Amino acid sequence: MSVELYDTTLRDGTQAEGISLSVEDKLKITRKLDELGVHYIEGGWPGSNPKDVEYFARVQEMPLQNALLCAFSYTGRAGLRVDEDTNLAMLLGARTPVVTIVGKSWDLHVTEVLRVSEDQNLKMIEETIAYLRSKGRRVIYDAEHFFDGYHANPEYAMRTLEAAVNGGAETLVLCDTNGGSLPWDIEDLTRMVCKELNVPVGIHAHNDSELAVANSLAAVRGGAVQVQGTINGYGERVGNANLVSIAADLKLKMGIDCLSEEQVRSLTEVAHYVSEVANLAPDSRQPFVGASAFAHKGGIHADATVKCRESYQHIDPEQVGNHTRVLISELSGKGNVLYKVGELDLGMEVSKEEARQLVQQIKDLESKGFVFEGAEGSAELLLRRNRADYEPPFELIDFMVVVEHRQGRDMLSEATVKVRVGDEIKHTAAEGNGPVNALDAALRKALLRFYPKLENVQLEDYKVRILDGDAATAAKTRVLIDSSIGQRRWGTVGSSANIIEASWQALRDSFEYALLNGD
């Protein structure tokens, strides 16, 4: 058995709050989806906005190796001949080999939303599909609200599918548009439709009950041979079925062909790529591909994972392009430390007693406000600094930060830094748009002559958390900094009752980590 993957990230996915893709963005994602190996890419709705019209014009110049491109639209409008409908004319103008038409299956929507008769709706479905077929297009029919419609009026819901079949639809896609159905209901109704109508059936699920992936897999069990979804589950309201998880489940759990093993191994890369293009941070807790999907924090879990990888992992993470991570935290045991030392290849031997001492050091630091599971750069430095022969690339002698306000002028922030590199001391100052920015600028200025690569270190995120709010302005503060060079990204942490000191600790670790790791 095989199942077709139909991706609608570029249309349904862009209906998610906070996502807006440019034409260039959509072209980039199209190329990546084709490389992944999905069978259909729904590029958008050419009748809805000029951006999609431009996309379909430009994508014609992109030769696709695996996917067929689809354009999307509603049925033709009531009271208008299909060959006079400008929306359908624009759909044909997209010049895609496949078009997807959505129509109403729920009588409530027919009478209260479209405000047409039930027979008129059936005529719109059949005539639209027949017209598009006469123009040489393959047609996939999305039966909107099918499951809700079937429960409200089963006879009419089935008649809408029959109208689509009579018009020449090659696939009937049953849509759980409101995302409220349950897996066993999806499976039973999908099986019934497959039995009643001799046409391939698909599923389009939304995630309002957090069951979109489960419902999609249930539909496959019921006989569906096409699954529609989006990368990372982006979509209207709380999202669509996550095509990344679906592909992994189909291939690795159910033994159903949808992608090759090599293509499945690219799922993590594709998921992160699409999130970056969409200007969204990758979800660290996303199943299969998130950074935390195979991360082990508790000492018992980490110890068992070191001894036997499958003991606390449902698959080998490399099957989806991910990897095992063991975190360093106050919940760590010696196994976490021993694994981390080996993983980082620090060239140091750590006895079990030394590992226990490191664990206690970590717990002491976390009791003071440090946290290492979100700051693996600082965690690595903690381990390195416990080597007897470790020499830091620079050493702070002292620093001073001045923030000044004078009437009639902007705020002034200036930092003075004195650091030692080898036998040389560098003393410098810099201004910034705030005290931390000034400290960052001064430290860079002091170190760049010795370490030019620091020019490429980018501060990606700066987060401050108050740890004991009852102490008001005297509260202890934790600072987390995310930094990057190119594709390499790391986090560092500082903690102090003085926010400038906490910021310095995190900033120092960020630069020190950069100098010890790669280009």
Count the domains. 3
- What's the gyration radius in Å? 29 Å
Strand segment tally: 16
Q: CATH H level of the largest domain: which superfamily?
A: Aldolase class I
CATH architecture assignment name of the largest domain: Alpha-Beta Barrel
What quaternary form is this?
Answer: single chain
Q: So what's the overall shape?
A: elongated
State the CATH topology of the largest domain. TIM Barrel
Number of helices: 18
Indicate the mean pLDDT.
87
**Residues in β-strands, percent:** 15-25%
The level of helicity is 25-40%
Give the N-terminus to C-terminus distance in angstroms: 47 Å
Give a written overview of the molecule.
Helices cover 39% and strands 20% of the residues. With 519 residues, it is α/β, with parallel strands linked by helices. It folds into three domains: 4-277, TIM Barrel (Alpha-Beta Barrel), CATH 3.20.20; 295-367, no CATH class; 395-516, Alpha-isopropylmalate synthase LeuA, regulatory domain (Double Stranded RNA Binding Domain, 2-Layer Sandwich), CATH 3.30.160.270. An eight-stranded parallel β-barrel has the order 1-2-3-4-5-6-7-8, surrounded by ten helices. Strand 15 and strand 16 form a beta hairpin. The radius of gyration is 29 Å and the shape is elongated. The model has no long low-confidence stretch (mean pLDDT 87).
